[in-house]
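Hi,

Apologies if this is the wrong queue. I'm a grad student, and the batch job for NAD-P-binding protein from Mycena alexandri produced an output file that my downstream script rejects. I'm not sure whether the problem is my script or the file. Here is the sequence I used:
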Amino acid sequence: MSFPTFTISTTAEEVATAFAKEIQGKNVLITGTSMNGLGFENARVIARHANLVIITGYNTERLKLSEEAIKKEVPSANIRPLTLDLSSLAAVRKAAAEVNAYPEPIHVVIHNAAATIGPFKATVDGFESQMATAHLGPFLFTKLIAPKILAAGTASYTPRVVFVSSSAHRMGPAIDLESIGKPNSTTYTAFLGYFHAKAAQILTAIELSKRSQGKINAYSLSPGAVSTNINQKEESKADMIAAGILTPEGLPSSKFHWKTIPEGAATTMIAAFDPRLAATPGVYLQDAVVANDQVAPHASDLDTAAKLWTITETVVGETFSF
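Support response: The file is valid. Your script probably expects a header line. Output copied below for reference.
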């Protein structure tokens, strides 16, 4: 079967249409699905074809708005909201227990949620919020619902876990592994926290694919520069303006190629459903194509990936086995 060639301007809907048969019958869980965001766009286009779309978020009211918006557009959509606060290990455990009580297996998990890029903020567990939301919470959640993910595997299908990272991971230094469990607020900057969290996601995709030995295919990706709800938050504006990402007026800077939300969500769709990726678990995608050459050495080093995995297991108090 031949599939279209995707480009930087391909939309999530175009990818969903191309892979409609791959999405049919699948149960997909997406984190971070507030409206005006990438996760919501993924949920919206997947809902037209999938058996079940589980949308998650820490704000129950926003989750309800997302559910209503999708059902209004796709009345036949099977949407199941799940309250999930990735910044709290206890909340992650509670949500995972709920998922494990579902009758269905989970074919695809898309880790799209992220914390606001802003001043240092400690979580209830004492971790740095960006690292907790993008790495520690998703790691624990994936570990706890692994039986549901593994149950989706068949002789002809390998379940997938997708991490929405960023090309900006290249702009920072290697992760200080000691800071994963013991963050240093004095050396923290908003973007250093972001760079490290995004590098951790790429490393986790590599190591998850390796350790699962063909039982789970994990991928990471950069959606590109997209103006979404998260980078429009007031607490992140000052850092965004200082970095030249936003203009002094708070508008997207012309220094970057900005994608629309549908364009930004396209690469996630490819990572989640493109059957051509089945043979290359652990790869990184950017602008709708595989782009391993765009990963910084510190985010692709196999030794670092293994060390991060072991340290994360210790921090969250769970050993991941398959």
